[in-house]
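Quick question, first post here. What does this chain look like in 3D?
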Amino acid sequence: MSLDLTVSDVAAMIDHAVLKPDLTLADVDAELDVATRYALFSVCVRPGDVSYVVERLQGTGVATGTVIGFPHGTTSTPAKVAEARQALADGAVELDMVLNIGRLRSGRVEDVEADVRGVVEAADGHVVKVILETAYLTDEEIVAGCRAAERAGAAFVKTSTGFAGGGATLPHVQLMRESVGEAVQVKASGGVRGLDTLLEMWAVGVTRFGTSASATILDDVAARSAGAQGTGAVDERSY
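> Answer (accepted):
Ran it through. Tokens below.
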């Protein structure tokens, strides 16, 4: 079966990650140029960069998202709520929050749900994606975290920050997809650096990807599409 996704299709699923703590504004500008050149769905930037990025991206069609309680999820719920409100005031349209990992691992699922709900309510209808940091969790904890996020009104459950010891894996995104209803989407992030990884995860229901390798992935889509058209070859992989 041939590759059915176009460059535009894949670009529309990517949140371009611009989150490294040492990035200068010149570095941020370079990443925003990537996002606009490839017409990505959004950039996910550091909270302090939101207002700068919103202004820089005005008129490009690329959305601005940011992170809450990042990267450890250990800040208090009131602090996360305040951070969410400030991010929205600065112009962010999507929020990727880290749930309280320690509370989840302690079995305090009600605390986790309340933490997420606080941010969802502060978001006032804006998309909230809940980062589980799956590398730290058992399968049972992943299921519990996904279900708590769904009950709290999250729009997405998300694998990773990219700052822990591991990122998204196919078994974890499959488990997450199975743990929530159709109204909740799954975002894979952390280690999504190639097209094959993206396609494998898309095939099992992932609809958004956080990556800093957007250009590499989309150039590969373009190259494979051009090769198939030029040779009439059929890609034997089924995606």
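Residues 232-239 have pLDDT under 50 and may be disordered.
The chain has ten helices and eight strands.
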